[in-house]
């Protein structure tokens, strides 16, 4: 358009206008030469992208693809239930895919319980019977256990008899008497009576001696009365304990004899009972472990949700990224092809008004 001049004759058009007209005709020529390649590309991409999207993506979203794969005889010689060793043919691909989306374990998804019986594999009742029979045949022999020998019993009896204290009666009678052999208070009274019969310095000395004797008696009473009382109580305790020593020794020997008889009679049974209780505890541990192993194997091991997620990711990549791009590509090229014919006509018509003519139209 920049090279056109309104009043210029067709035979005097500029080189810019003439080049524009030539380019129009060149575009028409190239369109006729290469348009079939464009049409072929549109056709191939349309056939591949459109059909694959309809067959795979749409049927995947509507679950018709899995129903088609589950159709008996679709693939000759292919039977999923027979491959998995199941009776009745209850397994299909759509059901497996649905269970995998719910994160089911392979044991549940493949119905392995129909092929493998965990109750038979983990049955330990037969082993319990064998253990019980072997335990009943077991003979426990222990060396004799002696708590007290006859020599030790004789020593205890002799010690209890020899431990009897002497008679403390005379000693207690002496303790009840005065601390001194004579009465200090009586001697003080005699000195006072004698002092009354004499006079002078002798009288004063006698009264002073009597006063000292009274003070000495009072001091002795204060110092030794508590100790004497404690001594009497200890003597009574010794006498009481000594009388019970022999009886306690005999009671202890009787209990030792009863314990000896109990050990001789019940030791073997006690060891058997405790050993069997220990074995039962071990068997309980095994049963607990077996129940945990069964529950883990059937419900926790090899969950197949990652398989379903992998298939979903493949579907997303194939449909949402690859096929959508291919379909957008052929759709765009299809519109280009559709507008190619009007553009050829328009280019031919416009070239007449741009190219430099050899002859001018005369009316």
From TrEMBL:
Molecular function as annotated in GO: cholesterol binding
Protein name listed in UniProt: PRM1A protein
Pfam families: Prominin (PF05478)
Topological relation to the membrane, as annotated: Multi-pass membrane protein
Transmembrane regions: 23-48, 328-348
Localization per Swiss-Prot or TrEMBL: Cell projection, Microvillus membrane
Stretches assigned to coiled coil: none
Domain of life: Eukaryota
Gene this protein is translated from: Prom1a_0
Keywords linked to the UniProt accession: Glycoprotein, Membrane, Transmembrane, Transmembrane helix
GO CC annotations, alphabetized: apical plasma membrane; cell surface; cilium; microvillus membrane; prominosome
Chief place where the protein resides: membrane
Family according to the record: Belongs to the prominin family.
């Amino acid at each position: 358009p920049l090279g056109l001049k309104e009043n210029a004759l067709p035979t005097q058009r500029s080189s810019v206008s003439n080049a524009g007209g030539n380019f129009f005709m060149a575009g028409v020529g190239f369109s006729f030469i290469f348009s079939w390649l464009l049409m072929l590309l549109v056709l191939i991409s349309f056939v591949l992208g459109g059909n694959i999207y309809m067959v795979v993506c749409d049927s995947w979203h509507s679950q018709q693809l899995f129903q088609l794969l589950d159709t008996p005889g679709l693939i000759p010689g292919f039977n999923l239930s027979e491959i998995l060793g199941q009776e009745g043919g209850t397994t299909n691909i759509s059901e497996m895919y649905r269970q995998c989306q719910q994160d089911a374990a392979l044991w549940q998804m493949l119905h392995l319980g129909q092929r493998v019986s965990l109750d038979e594999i983990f049955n330990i009742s037969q082993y319990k019977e064998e253990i019980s029979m072997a335990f009943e045949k077991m003979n426990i022999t222990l060396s004799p256990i002696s708590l007290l020998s006859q020599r030790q019993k004789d020593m205890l009896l002799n010690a209890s008899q020899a431990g009897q204290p002497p008679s403390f009666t005379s000693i207690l009678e002496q303790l009840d008497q005065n601390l001194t052999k004579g009465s200090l208070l009586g001697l003080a009274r005699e000195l006072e009576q004698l002092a009354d019969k004499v006079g002078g310095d002798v009288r004063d000395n006698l009264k002073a001696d009597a006063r000292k004797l009274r003070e000495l008696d009072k001091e002795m009473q204060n110092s030794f009365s508590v100790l004497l009382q404690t001594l009497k109580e200890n003597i009574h305790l010794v006498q009481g304990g000594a009388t019970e020593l022999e009886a306690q020794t005999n009671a202890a020997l009787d209990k030792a004899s009863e314990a000896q008889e109990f050990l001789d009679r019940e030791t073997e049974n006690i060891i058997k009972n405790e050993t069997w209780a220990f074995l039962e505890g071990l068997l309980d541990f095994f049963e607990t472990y077996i129940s945990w192993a069964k529950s883990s194997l059937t419900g926790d091991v090899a969950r197949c949700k990652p398989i379903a997620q992998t298939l979903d990711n493949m579907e997303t990549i194939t449909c949402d990224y690859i096929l959508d791009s291919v379909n957008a590509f052929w759709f765009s090229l299809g519109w280009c092809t559709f507008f190619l014919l009007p553009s050829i006509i328009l280019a031919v018509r416009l070239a007449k008004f741009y190219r430099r003519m050899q002859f001018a139209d005369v009316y």
